[in-house]
Amino acid sequence: MPSHRYYIGLMTGTSLDGIDAVLVDFGGAMPRLIATQSAPLPDELRAQLLLLQAPSNNEIHLAQLAANAHSLACAAVCHLLLQKAGIAADDVLAIGNHGQTIRHRPELGYTLQIGNHALLAEHTGISIVGDFRSRDVAAGGQGAPLVPAFHQALFAAPERNRVVLNIGGIANLSWLGSDGAVSGFDSGPGNVLLDLWINRQQGLPYDCNGDWARSGQIHTRLLECLLAEPYLALPAPKSTGRDLFHANWLDAHLQQVGELVKPEDVQTTLLELTAQTISDAILGLGRPDEVFVCGGGAYNGFLLERLAHHLPCPVQTTAALGVDPNWVEAYAFAWLAMRCMTQQSGNLPAVTGARGLRMLGAIYPR
Q1: Are strands 19-25 and 32-39 parallel, antiparallel or unpaired?
Q2: Among the residues of the chain, which ranges form H helices?
Q3: For the chain, what is the radius of gyration of the CA atoms?
Q4: What is the rounded CA–CA span in Å between residue 341 and residue 185?
Q5: Which contiguous run of DSSP H or E holds residue 128?
Q6: Are 117 and 44 in contact (CB under 8 A)?
Q7: Handedness of CA 83, 88, 89, 94 (dihedral sign)
Q8: What is the CATH number of domain 6-143+327-364?
Q9: Of 207, 168, 166, which is closest to residue 291 (Cα–Cα)?
Q10: Backbone angles phi, psi at 145, to 5 degrees
Q11: Where do the domains of the chain lie?
Q12: Which of 13-22, 75-84, 279-288, 347-356 shows the lowest per-residue confidence on average (mean pLDDT)?
């Protein structure tokens, strides 16, 4: 009878659209995804987290309250996940909890993902591994992206230049070279500006399948202004987030254009910004044989079309590799928790710029 080594991975990303949870068995030669569960973020919690993306009054108090609410919501999702899988909490070795990023300033020596890990341990009866990014930052790294090491372990293919592309609020990519080399970084905005604009104009959380973007035209002058963002020209290692790509950033560029741009053309241009910055980032690393997309952007048909237009290879979702695009990031944090609990490194210095391999995460015993 094979032994089981169950871990849970939790992820709430830059898009702030929900909590994703996976149960993974690392007991075999290859990890096995046992069950998945998701839940939308409660409206009040989402509003709290959005408020915390920028400095505000009494933000330390507000951040702690949001951390508590976030952990209680995560605990509820974990209970549903275990119930679905028919697995007892006592059988799970640890939960890898990414938490919610509210500041990411590695150039100043810190990154902050809130979440009350002690409270989550108390409400699940399971050990928690959290705060994955800080050790890499302490070692001089960006603390992001952390998923390329997981992508290498799960998705690398001999003699293929394979790219795994996560399009959440921010887009990040992993280059899995045919020679075994791995690199990766945040290319720039993913869905964050697209979601922001359609929410402002139509009150919708996202542009389903990119249909609204498809109805407009690329505004050349606006695209040129957006592409002039200095971050996009920085060499790797690099990482970014809502600290840079936010409403004020977009509004400043719209003003710079000096003319009124139709709302649907803004949406089209923002989608093209995402497609071009991702494609330029990939082609700057080499010629890919295949690109596999995960995250919410995997369901934006128009975005995938534009990526295929710019890239010289097939663009598919990670479903073609056997993992639904919705679950790849949560899967990665289950893997990172396993690496921490078994005293193995979780970062790739070639990706983050850290001084060396480091064990990532802090353990909160059950």
Answers
A1: antiparallel
A2: 43-51, 59-85, 117-124, 134-138, 147-155, 192-202, 211-214, 220-227, 230-233, 247-257, 263-283, 301-310, 328-341, 349-352
A3: 20
A4: 26
A5: strand 128-130
A6: no
A7: negative
A8: 3.30.420.40
A9: 166
A10: -75, 150
A11: 6-143+327-364, 147-313
A12: 13-22
User: Any idea what the Cα angle at residue 50 is, between residues 48 and 54, rounded to 5°?
Assistant: 110
Average pLDDT over residues 265-274: 98
Residues 73, 41 contacting (CB under 8 angstroms): yes
Tokens of 319: 């479903």
What is the per-residue DSSP string for 154-180? HH--TT--EEEEEESSEEEEEEE-TTS
What pairing do the DSSP bridges indicate for beta strands 290-294 and 100-105? Answer: unpaired
Q: Which CATH architecture has domain 147-313?
A: 2-Layer Sandwich (3.30)
Read off the pLDDT of residues 201-255 as tens digits, 9 standing for 90 and up: 999 999 999 999 999 999 999 999 999 999 999 999 999 999 999 999 999 999 9
114 has a pLDDT exceeding 60: yes
Picking from 329, 312, 221, the residue whose alpha carbon sits closest to that of residue 273 is 221
**Residue pLDDT, tens place only, 240-268:** 999 999 999 999 999 999 899 999 999 99
Apex 184 CA angle, 179 and 188, nearest 5 = 145
Q: Is the peptide bond before 205 cis (omega within 30 degrees of 0)?
A: no
pLDDT for 1 equals: 39
Residues in the chain: 366
Note the maximum CA span of the chain.
69
Residue 81: pLDDT above 90? yes
CA–CA dist 145, 355 (Å, integer): 15
**Residue 178, amino acid:** S
* Mean local confidence (pLDDT), 124-153: 97
One DSSP character per residue, 221-287 reads: HHHHHHHT-HHHHPPSS----TTTSSHHHHHHHHHHH-S---HHHHHHHHHHHHHHHHHHHHHTT--
Dihedral over Cα of 337, 19, 136, 287: its sign: positive
